[in-house]
Every structure is written in C-alpha cells, then in structure tokens.
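Now for our specimen.

. . .
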Amino acid sequence: TISPQTDGRRAMLRVLELVADRIFCRTRADIRFTEPLVADAPAYTFDTTHPVRSLTYRTSAPPASEAHAFGAAAMGQSTTLADAEQGDAPIAIVRDITSTTAVLANATAVAHLRQQKLDERDGELVVQPHVGMELLDVIAIDQPLATASTITARVAAIAWRYDKRKSLLDQALTLSPR
C-alpha cells in the first residue's frame, strides 16, 4: 500500500520491489519500464566475425533458489529448479501486505526470485564497440577458443574504455544471467 503522503521516488521504489521489471530514466523527460523475460532471444551473437578481446565468465550458486512471500492472510512460494540443483541456496522470505490471495503472493515470490537473478553478475565481456548494444539485451557468445559451448547472458552494464597508448577503444559488457 502506498499512502497519499508518499513522494514519487519512494512510491516508484515500492512498486519496483513488487515486480521484476526494470526502469531506465534518460536525459530526456521519459522513462522506459521493461520486464526482461527468461525466454528473450539473443539480440546479437559475438562469434568469429565480431571477435572477443577478453571474457571472464563464472557460474555460482544463486543467492536464493526458493522464495516464500507472506501477505495479508496469504502465503505463496516459488522455486527455480535449475538454481536449486546447483547447491544449498537459502530461502528468501518476502513480506508483502498487498498480497491478499495465494495467487498474488505466488506472483510476489516469482518476482523476487527474478529480481535476484537480474541483479547477479556473472562476468565481463570486452569487445570492439557495438553501437547497437543496450542494457538488458540478451547476447550469445560463440567463440570456439573462449568457450566449448555457446554462452547466453544478459547485458547488465556497458562501459567504454579508451587506451591512449594503443589508440584502442573497447566496450566492456558486464554480464548477468538471462
């Protein structure tokens, strides 16, 4: 519940706690609100035609593989089986007084697990600049010398690096799970 005295910033943060969506504020007077889905297809594949300069990629146990959401007279839960198979991840407990039914509480638990997945950082890819790359794009890395199988990840952050000595511009993409 958001009270009438709540300012816009706190109201937006409260809404973002309840959903897995992400928000982007730009320099113009607009906001982009998006929900990154697990089933999103790769927007670009880094293969031998777009060589990889460096790749650091790791897999680790998730912060939680199961979430329990407790609402007003309702309880819901969600489990990510693929993450549960990786190890002993703790159970996340979420309190949400706006969840008045089991269906809403389940949706809150699912959104909480999705938020945690989007907040994970799995590595960094350094490549020649790709001007069409955007935050939350899904990419595939298919480099026989770097990895035995294709890696699919989501772009969590983009940084540009310029080496004056080599006159070389790089794009560093921070990776998160899809």
Notes: The mean pLDDT is 81. The longest strand covers residues 151-163. The two ends are 31 Å apart (CA to CA). Residues 102-119 form the longest helix (18 residues).
